[in-house]
Specification:
single chain, 90 residues, mainly alpha, 4 helices, 3 strands, 10% strand
């Protein structure tokens, strides 16, 4: 499941996104309780993609210590999380 860091620690103006991501995390729990595979990946910002293109949003994230990831690094991290059968990563 692709969720966002808003479900982990909230985010200014992202209350609905946080709630939606919590539902995805619950779905992962439900699947795993039934022996099915599932991984929840709580993404932050990616360089120059989506919110990573909004300087004001990036400034807010940087104040919290969240730095945007390079897309290739994000793909590598996703592959490792799924291959490692992680339940949840941020």
């Amino acid at each position: 499941m692709f969720s966002s860091i808003a479900g982990i620690w909230g985010g200014g103006g992202q209350g609905p996104a946080g709630a939606a991501n919590a539902v995805l995390d619950a779905l992962v729990e439900w699947r795993r309780a039934r022996g099915l595979k599932a991984t929840s990946i709580a993404w932050g910002a990616l360089d120059e993609i989506g919110i990573g293109m909004d300087e004001a949003a990036l400034a807010q994230l940087r104040r919290r210590g969240v730095l945007p990831m390079a897309p290739q690094l994000a793909v590598t991290a996703m592959v490792q999380a799924v291959a490692g059968n992680e339940k949840a990563v941020a």
